[in-house]
Amino acid sequence: MADFQHSTGTDAHGEIAQTHDRTPGDDLEKFRRQLDAIDATLLETVRERLLLCLQIGEWKRTSHVPMMQPSRVHVVQERARQFARQHNLSPEFFSSLYELLIAETCRLEDLVIDGPEANVENVRESVGPRSGLTR
């Protein structure tokens, strides 16, 4: 039995119409395209978050505010865990995900806050190409 069947007939205009029976591989490719689109959105959202955190780092630098804000970190992590619980997902996974995001945010903010002012543009470029999000 073939996984892919091909048949011909005529459509309403008398043109030869070709139909293809769907295969499990077609469904898998459709799912993969959907995942790819979601991943592209996720990655761009992470990049936007990092760019915003660079702006926050610049503000902290000029305002002489310490990089680490433990109460804010706690709020962000708890919000992620609560989101997971509300959606019947793993709070541990979301906690781990946000630990990674926060660690990268702290690394970038440290570079901005503690480095020379000229370093800010280099750090911004390391996050990605310039976009409307940079200033």
From TrEMBL:
<dbReference type="Pfam" id="PF01817">
    <property type="entry name" value="CM_2"/>
</dbReference>
<feature type="region of interest" description="Disordered">
    <location>
        <begin position="1"/>
        <end position="26"/>
    </location>
</feature>
<dbReference type="InterPro" id="IPR008241">
    <property type="entry name" value="Isochorismate_pyruvate-lyase"/>
</dbReference>
<keyword id="KW-0413">Isomerase</keyword>
<dbReference type="InterPro" id="IPR036263">
    <property type="entry name" value="Chorismate_II_sf"/>
</dbReference>
<protein>
    <submittedName>
        <fullName>Chorismate mutase family protein</fullName>
    </submittedName>
</protein>
<feature type="domain" description="Chorismate mutase">
    <location>
        <begin position="22"/>
        <end position="113"/>
    </location>
</feature>
<dbReference type="InterPro" id="IPR051331">
    <property type="entry name" value="Chorismate_mutase-related"/>
</dbReference>
<dbReference type="InterPro" id="IPR036979">
    <property type="entry name" value="CM_dom_sf"/>
</dbReference>
<feature type="compositionally biased region" description="Basic and acidic residues">
    <location>
        <begin position="12"/>
        <end position="26"/>
    </location>
</feature>
<dbReference type="InterPro" id="IPR002701">
    <property type="entry name" value="CM_II_prokaryot"/>
</dbReference>
<feature type="compositionally biased region" description="Polar residues">
    <location>
        <begin position="1"/>
        <end position="10"/>
    </location>
</feature>
